[in-house]
Design brief:
The complex is a heterotrimer. By secondary structure, chain B is an all-alpha fold. Chain B has helices at residues 2-20, 23-30, 48-54, 59-91, 97-109, 112-116, 120-125, 132-156, 161-168, 173-184, 186-202, 205-211, 218-227, 231-251, 253-258, 260-266; strands at 32-34, 44-45. Chain C is 23% helix and 35% strand. Chain C contains nine helices and 20 strands.
Amino acid sequence: MSGAALGRRLPRWARILLLLAPALTVIGVFFVAGIGQAVAQSLGHQPFLPGSRLSFDAYRSLGQDPAVRASLLLSLRVALLSTAVATVLGVAVALLLRRTGRSRRWLSSVLQGNLAVPHVVAALCMLLLLAQGGLLSRVGHAFGWTSRPADFPALTGDGFGWGIIMAYVWKETPFLVMITLAALSGGVEQLENAARTLGAGPVRRLVSVTLPLIAPPVAAGSLLVFAFAFGSYEVPYLLGRPYPATLPVVAYQYYRDTDLALRPQAMAVAVLITTLSVLLVAGYLALVRRLSRRAL
Amino acid sequence: MTGRGTVRRGVLSVAAAMAVLPLVPLLVWSISGQWRYPGLVPQQWSDRGLRLLTDPGSQVVQGLTTSAVIAVTVAVLACCIGLPAGRAIGVYRFRGRTLVRFLLLAPVIVPGLAVTLGIQVFFVRYGLSDTVTGVVLVHLLPTVPYAAVLLGAAFANLDLDYERQARMLGAGPIRTLLFVTVPLLRSALITAALFTFLISWSEYVLTLLIGGGQVRTLPLLLFAAIGSSDTTAAAALGLLVVGLPLLLVAVSARLLSTAAPTTIGLGRL
Amino acid sequence: MNDSTGATVELRRVSRRFGEVTAVETVDLSLRPGAMTALLGPSGCGKSTTLALIAGLQAPDSGDVHIDGAAMTTVPAERRPVAMVFQKPLLFPHLDVAGNVGFGLRMRRLPRREIRARVDAALAQMQLSGLAHRRVGQLSGGQEQRVALARALVLQPRVLLLDEPFSQLDAGLRAEMRGLVRQLQARTRITTLFVTHDQAEAVDVADDIVLMLDGRIAGHGPPPLFYSNPPSLDAARFFGVTNELPGRVSHGIWRSPDGALRVPCALPDGPAILTVRPEALHLAGPGDDPGEEDPPLTVTGTVASARFAGTHLAVRVQLSGDRTVTAHTPVGTPVPVGGKVRLSMAPDACTVFAAARA
């Protein structure tokens, strides 16, 4: 019997399982097993090595490590600020952009190009622009505001993370513009017109019609931005300081340390990143859902 | 009214300028010979940076090849894996579908590095560490979910009666897939291929972790160049790394503007 | 066609369930070879499922489909000698008109030249010759469905299945397309099954009608049968009988306060319903004498309303006991609204059914 006829005889559940098998294998091996291994190894399990002893030592030492506390603070600050700024800017630009006919296409393509810029390149661009010897600093000198590179505020390699935040804002704002524009195209204008016939002025329309309507997709988008800014490695590595570094940078440093005793701690940081990103995302989503319901 | 329109246009022009501005020093640096502080323009122009990119003996050409081979392989694999998964979640309603959708979305949210650290030893153990194969495999983690979710949305909008019609015209399952389903999903497939390619092309830390510095893709070379003092070389390399994505997005701009979920993918490059 | 005899299509005790719902319940059906049969029924009666079972797009839970005497159980849809046109045109948007029409021939791996010749012939047959290289999106609704028909017929199938193919077209175009299909079928003598929920369409297009109700065959025969001698009360109702007079049958005679009628002796004694079509009711004044030896059955009542309905007047008459009947009379007949009338009906226009067991 041909494969065709055979395929038809398969029960439904088997067909679905077969379709999902390759993707679930990838996710099972790299994602589920990856998290499982990170948890196990953070507790002292050592694959392929005898005599591993399970303990919470790694977590205990993380709790006492001031560097980790500083990293956590930095990671959260960077992620929160870049998400907030990118969201506000993105929504604002999209709201302005949607009514302009010709220039919309033009600016959209500029923003789309921006989306495609790899984060490594974005970090390099920020270095060349914002560093104390960078283009902005030189402009400052040309206007006579500064006389030496050191007079220019340290925006890269700084303790606060300004450069990291700016790189994320530059990269993620266009993403949120696109998301907002897509959300605005789905019949929002008719509802705004309906609100207008009911006597709502421009501010009322924006606050009680437009924003609640676009809130869910925009929330989903900014949540992706947050998770990315919290967990990515390249930008904070290139634009931040070795100390305090963001959590992913710390995790990689610990993992690559010649002292293998630091590995459980590297895994513990990885588990911390995973847990926090999932928790923050869940809490944030719940909050936004409640906010948008109240406004409606 | 015209006054408000002018303000709006002004704000948007500033936005456009802000979007483009950071690329300016990159461009200028790549063709500068000497550009000391506080000069606003280079003291000396040079094509040294650009020559570096085309020198067949340099690492750059090798890196370009490695990057391209990996990214193309990843895009093809991710689409081949994502297509059936997309069919399952887009067409069927089954118990556990919510769990599957969660599993497909989770790798998008949870940082790849945190997930991959724990299995690096297995790559070493099974001889996949420091190999192109290992890097391709680890790149599937951030790409397969995108391909599956995007193609899932496409399958949900597909009228399966087209496939039944093809069967009635004598096409078996394989030829129905090749001659009907794939052409009908063409734009979603191109989009999925495009941005899984771009995700792989831009990936740094997973390549570093599994490739161990032996598999030198362009982002790895760029990292090394940024660390060195040769800004011109770094800028030229940066131009190469950003050039191909910009080109691809420009070519497929019409396609991208129609597919909103695409932007979700591009946000993660 | 290469042979003059059409294919036989038989369903033998075929059932198909979807979870709890039985869509097709032990159906036995044999289509007249070379004829156009309409499969008629309300939506959800199982007619589309029946079509899918014949096409092979679904497998029966039990029973067999036989085409030309061969069991189709293990034959996948793509290898059955069956072509199907769906409700939607389903033209492949990535192919032009000629590419669509030639799709099935390419699947059969015919030589390119033969494909082109047969596609050209099929397009000419459908008056689509100028459109061969038109993009599918540029066609009108009628053209789209003609291309879909050409795509099916170019394969010279033994059996042609049409699943409400014109239901998305407007009325004028639908009649025109029906005429085209009837003419093509008459020429090719392909055994054809035409699914529709519209009894007027079924009567207009088909040699035979299969009436399907609740997953079962409720009647099978030439269209006039369903008017002159409907096989069941449900069938009569589906074909537009609106007048039902309850009564009782005993010893082969139906009786009610209105009169009596001899009925086929097959009918068992008990409660029974006499049905009569509105156009078979004749209006007479209360005093008019039928003046015949064997008087037709008559009822009397009060005219409740008379409504102009284009070709006739629809007169509603209130009978005793809260019953109403509708009669169709020629336009121009004087109708005394509010007045008494007598309605007569020819015995052979009436059909009596045993009342449904409560």
